[in-house]
Amino acid sequence: MSYIRSNQPKEAIAILEKGLKLNFTEKKTVELKAWLGIASVFAGAVSQSKKTCQDVVRADPNSAEGHFCLGLSYLGLGDKVSALDEYKILKTMGSDFASPLFKHIYP
After folding, report:
1. Rounded to whole angstroms, how far apart are CA atoms 28 and 64?
2. Domain edges within the chain
3. Closest-CA residue to 86 (of 77, 69, 103)
4. Distance CA 68, CA 88 (A)
């Protein structure tokens, strides 16, 4: 999401919330929710992000975006151990999100 990368998470949240009102497939809806959680972390709504990300991972345990989101949320809440657990899951999955999460954990 370019709004997240350009440090505009609130704009990303607004767009993602509009997108979630559309009639997408369940898989696409789960992906949008993961990105909503990621944007929420960067907007400072870490507790809400954690809940959203947990819902994503429950709906799709193989969602790399969901595990990345959850890792960022744990990190934002000061739980580095759980963030590392999410990194390990991503690494095991062979996800491209593993390295960016690791870089957030160990900047």
Report:
1. 13
2. 2-105
3. 69
4. 11
> Over the stretch 7-46, which tens digit does the pLDDT of each residue have?
788 888 888 888 888 888 888 899 999 999 999 998 999 9
Confidence grade of residue 49 (pLDDT, cut at 50, 70, 90):
very high
Candidates 1.20.120.520, 1.25.40.10, 2.40.170.20, 3.40.630.10; CATH matching 2-105: 1.25.40.10
Q: Going along the chain, which residue ranges are E strands?
A: none
- Looking up tokens 């969602």, which residue turns up? 63
How many whole angstroms separate alpha carbon 95 and alpha carbon 46? 23
